[in-house]
């Protein structure tokens, strides 16, 4: 995993006293695009078989 997005959240009460601190991380995998044509799946083949 190469890229990551980190978000922080701080929860306070009425008196501005910190109650909780939280964080989340989203990891993005590396892309493996080699320049070849993308093979798309044809849904028409499945819809014709079910009838």
Describe this protein's structure.
The longest helix is centred in the C-terminal third of the chain and has 7 residues, at 44-50. It is built from one helix and two strands. The protein starts with a strand and ends with a helix. By secondary structure, the chain is mostly beta strands. The protein has one helix spanning 44-50; strands at 3-12, 18-28. A hairpin with a 5-residue loop joins strand 1 (3-12) and strand 2 (18-28).
Brief synopsis:
Helix content is 14%, strand content 41%. The chain is mainly β.
Salient structural properties:
single chain, mainly beta, 51 residues, two-stranded antiparallel sheet
Tell me the radius of gyration: 23 Å
Strands, total number = 2
| Amino- and carboxy-terminal Cα gap | 44 Å
Count of helix runs: 1
Widest beta sheet: strand line-up: 1-2
Could you give a short account of the major beta sheet?
2 strands, antiparallel
Helicity, in percent?
10-25%
Secondary-structure element sequence? EEH
Form type: elongated
Average pLDDT works out at 80
List the helices and strands and how they pair.
Blueprint: E1 3-12, E2 18-28, H1 44-50
Antiparallel strand pairs: 1-2
């Amino acid at each position: 995993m190469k890229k990551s997005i980190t978000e922080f959240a701080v929860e306070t009460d009425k008196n501005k006293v910190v109650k909780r601190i939280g964080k989340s991380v989203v990891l993005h995998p590396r892309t493996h695009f080699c320049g070849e044509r993308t093979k798309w799946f044809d849904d028409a083949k499945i819809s014709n078989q079910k009838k």
